[in-house]
Design a protein that fits this description.
Layout: H1 5-32, E1 41-42, E2 58-61, E3 69-76, E4 79-81, E5 84-88, E6 91-99, E7 104-108, E8 114-117, E9 121-129, E10 133-138, E11 151-157
Parallel strand pairs: 3-6, 5-11
Antiparallel strand pairs: 1-9, 2-3, 3-4, 6-9, 7-8, 7-10, 10-11
Bound molecules: dinuclear copper ion.
Length: 158
């Protein structure tokens, strides 16, 4: 079959454009993935209470790490454990959290700590607490009738 030269050019151009489009689509779908990057560690949501470190929620001092404390939180409908925690001022804290049931949020109001807690995954965020006072932790993922009641408090003390 004879093809006009321009027809051929446009056919090639169209094919290339389609391939580029599909590649971009595939790559972005791959990168968006199913899980946020902070959720690389997995856990059996049925065994949260007997799995370290979640068998001991709260603040733990650590040595030889880039952070001073590890702060372990377990979220469940409709509360956080611990419900309140004190942190010494000017300390670097690695927050380690998970959910026992459904997806919950974990936002420390007024800071850039904002994580999604998914059952089966461990979410982590390292941050510094330089200002004395109370920090409210709220759930920002709708999780049921008690969603708006879910909160915990971090008291930064000197
Ligand atoms: Cu937990 Cu909303």
């Amino acid at each position: 079959m004879h093809m006009h030269k321009f027809e051929k050019v446009w056919l090639i151009f169209g094919t290339v454009a389609l391939l580029v489009f599909l590649t971009v689509l595939g790559v972005s779908a791959f990168y968006l993935g199913n899980q946020p990057p902070s959720c690389l560690v997995t856990i059996d949501p049925e065994k949260v209470e007997v799995t370290a470190p979640f068998n001991a929620p709260g603040l733990h001092e650590v040595t030889g790490k880039d952070w001073d404390y590890e702060l372990v939180f377990v979220a469940s409908a409709f509360s956080y454990s611990p419900a309140k925690v004190e942190i010494p001022k000017d300390s670097t804290v690695k927050v380690i959290a998970t959910s026992k049931d459904v997806i919950h949020g974990f936002e420390i109001a007024g800071t850039n700590v904002n994580m999604m807690l998914e059952p089966g995954f461990v979410s982590e965020y390292t941050t510094r607490f330089n200002n004395e006072g109370e920090n409210l932790i709220i759930c920002n993922e709708y999780c049921g009738v008690g969603h708006h009641m879910m909160s915990s408090r971090i008291e930064v003390v000197s």
